[in-house]
Amino acid sequence: MSDDADLKTDVLVIGGGIMGCSAAYFLARAGVDVLLIDRHDLNTQGSGTNAGSIHVQIISRFFKSTDPLWVRGRAALLPLLKEAVSFWQRFAPELDDDVELRIGGGLMVAENETELRVLESKVAVERAQGVNSELLDRKQLEKLAPYLAPSVLGAELCPLEGKVNPIRATPAIARGAVRAGARIRRGVTLHSLNTDKSWFEAVTSIGRIRARRVVNAAGPWCNEVAAMVGLSIPLERHARNMSATEPVEPFVMHLIQHADQRLTLKQVSNGNLLLGGGWPAVIDPASGRANVIRTGISGGLWIATHVVPRIRHLRLIRAWSGILFFTPDGNPVLGEAPGVPGFFNAVGPNAGYTGGPLCGKLVAEAVTGQPLSFDVRSFDLQRFESRAA
Q1: In what order do the strands lie in the sheet with 316-326?
Q2: Which residue, 144, 169, 165, 168, is CA-closest to 155?
Q3: What local confidence, expressed as pLDDT, does residue 82 receive?
Q4: Of 5, 71, 290, 346, which residue is most buried, by most CB within 10 angstroms?
């Protein structure tokens, strides 16, 4: 598509991350004329800069929140993430590349009795929602994960957790969308979006694009796209740091987290260990991109080497940052927006890469009027209206 003349499509997807590419994939597979645009390249923002953790159990700092929205939201989020992992397992074999999806289980470790009690309470909440997690003692851990430090007294095991390679997965989904007939335009800036109730007109850096329907999959900037049609999506954006070590022989088989500290640690297919968990980076006000900061790197290294002492001698070969986002309850916003017919939100949950393919499919089902394969009524935008008031 080298011609910059006005374009027309049935569905315009805004955003080339995991959500946008997944929505385009399933829309094109359903025979819909779909055009995806991204102001940069595919997978270069939140989706491509995350560490690829597959999350199901509640992250400890979110579990400790007393915000009623977060507490209430767990009942909807846990079944969604459980189904999302099952969907990944069915979906990955369809792709033209090994996306390195590995579901080996996740361990959230505790180093004192207070942390163990937190995990005990968390296991009860998760099991009530059908997540088969369990609390392991020190003796069980010594057999399952002997590399953990002696200070670790116990851990929660969630068998559904694992990892995937975002650098391979999102492009594979995009290629599948193109094979099914989707069009993709990179480097397209969206300036404005208007609607006359029958058509949407997107004014972009390559000209006007007319579409009957729009899917808002702009990730951390979904609220800005929604504002163009008069909608308000409450989002928090945060820059977060990640690091990678040199490769070593495989020895970490689980996704490791902590009951009180910011930590994700996993070993990927080529032997590198990836360290994350939410240590801060900064957003450059000029470019809008995330930049690493020293405290984000050193904080992540401190807790990782404390929990897994065996990695202390390894060299750090890379550090990078990305922008994560979440709604006030950590849950997605999915489906047709109230008051704006034809405008569909595809805002991911706080475990965005975990939920990306399933949520993209659910939005595609909503756009095409198919019966939804998962109940998304809990993820309607209107749930935030009382909070705003």
Answers
A1: 134-137, 154-158, 106-110, 255-258, 264-267, 273-280, 236-245, 316-326
A2: 144
A3: 97
A4: 346
Q: For residue range 219-235, list pLDDT tens digits in order.
A: 999 999 999 999 999 99
| Residue range 359-368: mean pLDDT, rounded | 98
DSSP 53-88: EE--SPPHHHHT---HHHHHHHHHHHHHHHHHHHHH
pLDDT band, residue 49 (cuts 50/70/90): confident
User: pLDDT tens, 77-88?
Assistant: 999 999 999 999
Total number of residues shown for the chain: 389
* Boundary residue ending a domain (284, 309, 326): 326
Whether residues 313 and 192 fall in one domain: no
The H or E element containing residue 162 is: strand 162-163
Cα gap 194→94, rounded to integer Å: 36
> Whole-angstrom Cα distance, residue 35 to residue 14?
9
User: For residue 316, what are the domain limits?
Assistant: 106-159+236-326
Q: What is the pLDDT of residues 284-311, one digit of tens each?
A: 888 888 899 999 999 999 999 999 999 9
Question: Are residues 335 and 226 located together in one domain of the fold?
Answer: yes
Identify any residues that bridge with 276 across adjacent strands, giving them in sequence order: 264
Does residue 43 fall inside a structural domain? yes
| Mean pLDDT value of segment 351-370 | 96
Contact between 71 and 62 (Cβ < 8 Å):
no
pLDDT over 50 (residue 273): yes
From the list 240, 245, 238, the residue with the least C-alpha distance to 292 is: 240
Identify the three-state secondary structure at position 257: strand
Residue 141, pLDDT > 70, answer yes
Instruction: Report which of 167, 77, 155 is spatially closest to residue 112, judged by C-alpha positions.
Output: 155
Tokens of 160: 């559904």
Q: Where are the alpha helices (DSSP H) in 134-285?
A: 138-144, 166-179, 222-227
Q: What percent of the chain has pLDDT over 70?
A: 97
Q: Phi first, then psi: what are they for 276, rounded to 5°?
A: -150, -145
d(CA 111, CA 213): 51
SS3 146: coil
**CA-CA distance, 275 to 163, in Å (whole number)?**
12
